[in-house]
Amino acid sequence: MEADAKEKRALSATSSSSSDFSVEQVLPLEGKREGFSLVAFRAAIIEPRSASTLLKKVSEVLPIPNFRHLKRIRKKTTATQDDKKKATMLMLLLCPEDDFNLLDGDLRSELQKLTPTQESVRVPSHPPETDEEYRAYGKHWPISSRPRPAQKKEFSEDEKKIMISHMREAISVGRLGASKNGGQLPIGCVIVDPKSNRVVAKAYDRRRRRTEITSGEASCGHPLHHATMNCISAVAEYDRAKWPPNEQRKRRRDDGSGVEDALSSKPYLCTGYDMYVTHEPCVMCSMAALHSRIGRVFWAVENTYDEETGLGGTYMLHCDKRLNHRFEVFKGLLANEVKEDPQSFHVLAKDRDEVR
């Protein structure tokens, strides 16, 4: 308790003005697409009076779960306005053309009887992410719902000061690693428990083979020893020290039932923790953060050293729906302080061959 109190007082003493705070949340909308793709669909031309019945039947035999962003029916547009019958016809989406050609022969025959007039149309292949896309997509086919506007994340003044302090510590750790190990990349990482503002682990980059200035001995550089990886490993070491492997992992309930529960006090690695890192993590580090169940990541500047990054640069792994964990990412915190360090850009501009 006393140690935690000292740490909180130290944190308060080093906190900076919130006027230094400037971040931008890395959202899926940030990855702007160049135009959009259209996919060929088989559509039936139907009478308005039979639309309800046919829609129900077709939806049962041909569901299209990957195209829920599309309305299933639209009016049939015609070049001539004189023919009122054509002007009031409707188009009913059946399925993608590629799937239609693979349908069972009996099913295709049944569809042909229900909807004898069919044609191919091109529709947007994915849902719109902005109002601009919503309007553009609607010119090709009606869209079922508008995209939700992005909610800007707001932080209190106290939160801003704490976040600035933690990022400054990450910058300091990175510079320490670079100076102590004679040319390591000046990348620092700090992992914090936001509930108590306690620093759980901190680490710098050790991927390069360099001579230790303090001891004169060669450092054990390793291409996997990125700052983020080292910091997550330090969290694992902290867990092992606090919850030794030989400690009983089960406990009995106090209700006398005799049922055993897992120890509820032990978190899984970085669950709910915040990560502050001076440079955007590479793909490997981003996946490590994801699998360790990190809560939020704050990075200062873009990573111009690693060929591919994972949290806003090359990929956006933190919001990839195909993965089993998602978390918030914010960029730009104290970016100017990292950019103003001449060593940072000098080192990051060196050839990647020196990592070996």
TrEMBL record:
GO cellular component, one term: cytoplasm
Keywords in alphabetical order: tRNA processing
InterPro entries recorded: CMP_dCMP_dom, Cytidine_deaminase-like
GO-annotated biological processes: tRNA processing
Start-end of Basic and acidic residues biased regions: 1-10
One term of GO molecular function: tRNA-specific adenosine-34 deaminase activity
Positions of region (Disordered): 1-20, 242-262
Annotated Pfam families: dCMP_cyt_deam_1
Residues of the CMP/dCMP-type deaminase domain: 161-330
Domain of life of the native organism: Eukaryota
Family: Belongs to the cytidine and deoxycytidylate deaminase family. ADAT3 subfamily.
PANTHER family: CYTOSINE DEAMINASE FAMILY MEMBER, INACTIVE TRNA-SPECIFIC ADENOSINE DEAMINASE-LIKE PROTEIN 3-RELATED
Record protein name field: CMP/dCMP-type deaminase domain-containing protein
Native species: Bigelowiella natans (Pedinomonas minutissima)
